[in-house]
Design a protein that fits this description.
5 helices; alpha/beta; two-stranded antiparallel sheet; 32% strand; Dihydrofolate Reductase, subunit A
């Protein structure tokens, strides 16, 4: 049996995963009780996290700093308790993550092996470049996009799908959280003309 792989990403309406200005805050300041409860429910089941080295470093810096309010949210704390694989050619163990290991090598090869061997679903939050490569290789089963009601035309950073291959998306699920934030879950298939 092959484990499913979900690319879980936050974005502004104009497609940015982050901002260059600190005045937005986490979730672009649009988090609400329904979003946070839904995120907790999403991360409650057994699953294994997969990160690229840059996202792993960013998460561990945020957690260590403790100043970013989102690191105290229940779903983030749960994510930190989940087993994780960090795909990296530069990091070494032990990692600053309770149950994380380093997987050396190409992300496509590592994730293909994980999908074949894992007895739980795989999930990646962020890791944009890695997940674009995994999508191109046909290894991403679901793209879970949480669209926050902001446009960050002046301060947007990290375009989520810049440089990605072309895909057709089949909508699997959608929901509105807190009356303003959209979660869209798609099954991607490479676009062919």
């Amino acid at each position: 049996m092959t484990a499913t792989y979900t690319f879980d990403v936050f974005t502004s309406l104009d497609g940015f995963g982050g901002v260059t200005s600190a005045d937005w805050g986490g979730y672009w300041g649009k988090q609400g009780a329904e979003l946070l409860a839904h995120r907790s429910a999403t991360y409650a089941p057994a699953q294994r996290m997969v990160f690229g080295a840059n996202t792993y470093r960013a998460f561990t810096q945020l957690v260590a700093g403790g100043a970013e309010e989102t690191v105290h949210d229940a779903w983030v704390r749960r994510m930190l308790d989940l087993p994780a694989v960090v795909v990296s050619s530069t990091l070494t163990e032990p990692l600053d993550w309770p149950d994380a290991v380093v997987a050396k090598g190409d992300a496509v090869e590592v994730v293909a092996r994980l999908k074949a061997e894992s007895d739980v679903p795989l999930r990646s939050h962020g890791s944009l470049a890695m997940n674009r490569a995994l999508m191109a290789a046909g290894l991403v089963d679901f793209v879970q996009v949480t669209v926050f009601p902001v446009i960050t035309g002046q301060t947007g950073d990290d375009p989520v799908f810049a440089g990605a291959a072309d895909f057709d998306l089949d909508l699997v699920a959608s929901r509105t959280l807190d009356g303003r934030t959209q979660e869209l879950v798609y099954r991607p298939t490479p676009h062919t003309s």
